From TrEMBL:
Function: Small subunit of the glutamine-dependent carbamoyl phosphate synthetase (CPSase). CPSase catalyzes the formation of carbamoyl phosphate from the ammonia moiety of glutamine, carbonate, and phosphate donated by ATP, constituting the first step of 2 biosynthetic pathways, one leading to arginine and/or urea and the other to pyrimidine nucleotides. The small subunit (glutamine amidotransferase) binds and cleaves glutamine to supply the large subunit with the substrate ammonia.
Annotated residues for binding of L-glutamine: 45, 219, 221, 248, 251, 289, 291-292
Assembly description: Composed of two chains; the small (or glutamine) chain promotes the hydrolysis of glutamine to ammonia, which is used by the large (or ammonia) chain to synthesize carbamoyl phosphate. Tetramer of heterodimers (alpha,beta)4.
Carbamoyl-phosphate synthase small subunit N-terminal domain ranges (all copies): 1-131
Region spans: CPSase: 1-170
The UniProt record lists the keyword Transmembrane helix: no
GO biological process annotation, one example: 'de novo' pyrimidine nucleobase biosynthetic process
CDD domains on file: GATase1_CPSase (cd01744)
UniProt GO MF annotations: ATP binding; carbamoyl-phosphate synthase (glutamine-hydrolyzing) activity; glutaminase activity
Organism of this sequence: Eshraghiella crossota DSM 2876
Keywords: Amino-acid biosynthesis, Arginine biosynthesis, ATP-binding, Glutamine amidotransferase, Ligase, Nucleotide-binding, Pyrimidine biosynthesis
Name this polypeptide is given: Carbamoyl phosphate synthase small chain
SMART domains with a match to the protein in the record: CPSase_sm_chain (SM01097)
Amino acid sequence: MKAFLILSDGNVFEGTSIGAEREVISEIVFNTSMTGYLEVLTDPSYAGQAVVMTYPLIGNYGICYADEESGRPWPDGFIVRELSRVPSNFRSEDSIQNFLKENNIPGIAGIDTRALTKILREKGTMNGMITTNENYNLDEILPKLKEYTTGKVVEKVTCEEKYVLPGDGFKVALMDFGAKRNIARSLNKRGCEVTVYPALTTAEEILAANPDGIMLSNGPGDPKECVSIIKEIKKLYDSDVPIFAICLGHQLMALATGADTHKMKYGHRGANHPVKDLQTGKVYISSQNHGYVVDMDTLDDKIARPAFINVNDKTNEGLEYVGKNIFTVQFHPEACAGPKDSDYLFDRFMNMMKKGRD
């Protein structure tokens, strides 16, 4: 069946329908990863977005459910150049075609994803529609595309109630703003007892449990939409509990302490982004998924100082808070699939909690 991707600038791509045969409007973003498409599909940070995979062949190793980063996929749509017809992998349990259909995710294959990505790079991220309606009317569709916003998606992706991953080591409170499973796994394998809290949990409830450390997770959407969450994070900042924050959590902590954030032209999404540790001068390859960034011109150097920068575009990739046991990063040290270069940051968090106990 034919399918069409209609962009808000009027560009139209024709391809073949994959997955669910339904119409969807979403923000169109691209990911440059060569592997990890299941992790991309199940990353809650993609809620409210449709993902273009720039690697030309997707689905060749099938679906292995143990690799999911959450209990369900979150993107509104999936856009690829070519979908593998037969997966080849001893771990494969399903095909990506069936996975998309079973989870009611529409998609499109057979389009020039390189041309599409060049448009998004040159003009910036934009909204689009995936449709199988060959009689589409651009005059009716384009106003709808311009009206679309992702809205408050953190409340959509967070857990409904708190739960505990047992461990006999440090007690960590993980704020779930759309947390990837591998964040909790990375703490759990270091012996931590991880209590996962819904995004709207109050600071008072978290601090009353006397955690050794607090983790602020990744998540989707515009950080400035999280008004009530930012107020609670300020209370956590004012406590003496060690805090480690990733991606959206990094942005929320910056907002809570007076800095600002802004939307990037097309964001960072992929498993090949170089970041530089400003203290050691070392460069690490990182996995990233974000469309917003902390505005360094608004940062008070008495509150926080830059810890990492992006080697490509010099945007901020991490902050260290002055006089506090708090550090935050924009990239994903728990990357899966992706480089493990910055996995050591979890060990740094462990040392912070150890000092907090001493």
